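Q: Structure for this?
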Amino acid sequence: MILMIRMMNKQELIDFEKELVKRYLNREIRSPVHLSGGNEDQLIKIFRNVKPGDWIFSTYRSHYHALLKGVPRQWLLNWVLDNKSIHVMNKEHKIVTSSIVGGTISQAVGTAIAIKQKNENNHVWVFIGDMAASIGVFQDCLKYSVNNKLPIKFVIENNGLSTDTPSNEAWNMSEEDYNYQLKKFSEEFPECVIYYEYKRIYPHYGVGKRIDFETGRIIKTG
Amino acid sequence: MVSYKDEIIKAMKYLAEKPNSIFIGQSVRFKGTGLYWTIEEIDDSKKIETPIFEDIQLGISIGMALNGLIPISIFPRMDFLVLALNQLVNHLDKFEEMSDGQFKPKVIIRTSIGSVKPLFPGPQHSQDHTEALMKMCKNINIVKLTDKNFIMEEYKKAFLNDKSTILIELPDLYDS
């Protein structure tokens, strides 16, 4: 049973990731970490509508989603220190992630179908990056979900980057056109799609400094 | 004589009787593939007809399994199952490992090696990838149904087992 707990505030979210930076530089994490940052306000607003029994499907960058859903800080810290940041999974809080781009989108649709079949009253929230939102799997899943009136919300988190490649460059589009196309999903299907833009403050993975894991010496910044 | 196909039909009826089972895939509600005739008598309320989007179909099957259903996900030919390798190899096969045993979505995958008689369907409709799948999947049972006498038993095992199972049928034997 999940009890209602106080949602983390903006500073607590930021501080959690800062602690991971410290732990990473202290060589306590020996796996890629994809830190969240820069989208605290948008996520806090979205999570005000997420119920404890709802499902969360996310990506390799999922720390904020997990914390805001109610996963205890210490549980997540232990999970990351156990080198599993890239796929945070928590059954009690119904959190499923994948380190493959777009990997959980269709799974989220399946869970929403099961909710409908079983006449449950909870909801599915699936968080995806902008590149995942601009490829076929999202567009097919959105179409299928809308047509079947599934209890699902797709949240497009547009930071304009796929790993560290400007997404619009990969599509050979202007940034303005690229953003417009993604935003349009939320205007066309407001019942199913939430869209926001933000500026990532950490690199694709890591903390912005490369360290020699043998000596702890910082060997490269950026 | 009870044929291979009769045994498949019997196994499908067994699965259809289970309250949480659901058949999903292309041509599960409408004729169009050979496998349809083995589930023809199953009520439409137990079936979800999908667009032809194999990887999404398997992802949907995984998602349904995460929330307590037991999907029988049908890929009429193994050539088509190959299109779902992302969800099969990167996800279904790895869920238990990635979640430290918290999530064990169970999907029963039904596929076949395309028949080559009396019509040869060409290289894209008759491939046998059984060995390749066995090498790629560490945690999914893979069973080729070569003997009609074990069809019912294997489908029962797939239902009762904790793990996901791929059952590979041989339509060339359907009438035998």
